[in-house]
Amino acid sequence: MTDIHSAAPQLLDLAAAMRPDWDPDDLRGALASAAGNGWPFARACLAAVRLLCRPGSEARDLLAEVASPLERTGAPPQPVDAERRHELLAPALSAMAKASAEFASARDRGGDVA
Questions:
Q1: Local structure of 71: helix, strand or coil
Q2: Which 8-state DSSP code applies to residue 3?
Q3: Of the residues 52, 69, 73, 85, which has the maximum number of CB atoms within 10 A of its CB?
């Protein structure tokens, strides 16, 4: 079993694809705050992705969660129909496929993939 590596640049790319209304610096700062508060990348990633999928959320909501992890802000996500789910996820899946291909290409060339 391999360890989970930080993929903050890829997460920022995913956020840009899914939520162009979010300021990338806000998310970058929230991720740094999470790391500074001892959150492993996987925990911060899960929290960020949950917020990415919540309409009306902002990157700064992650800062509030880092400050008070037991009190989540905003309403819980509401179910969406299959067409809307595809519309929301298509940019994310495309960005993830691109990042995965770039990672595999760098790995195959023997480059640094960290």
A1: coil
A2: P
A3: 52
* C-alpha pair distances (Å), 112 with each of 7, 53, 66, 103: 13, 31, 30, 9
Return the SS3 of 73: coil
Distance CA 68, CA 92 (A): 28
> SS3 of 37, please?
coil
Q: How far apart are CA 73 and CA 114, in angstroms?
A: 33
Residue with more model confidence, 57 or 77: 57
pLDDT (0 to 100) of residue 21:
93
Does residue 111 sit in helix, strand or coil? Answer: coil
Q: What are phi and psi of 30, to 5 degrees?
A: -65, -40
3-class SS of residue 98? helix
Give the pLDDT score at 18: 93
Q: At which residue do the structure tokens 């979010």 appear? A: 22
Instruction: Please give the single-letter amino acid code of residue 86.
Output: H
Task: Return the structure tokens found at 47.
Answer: 């929290």
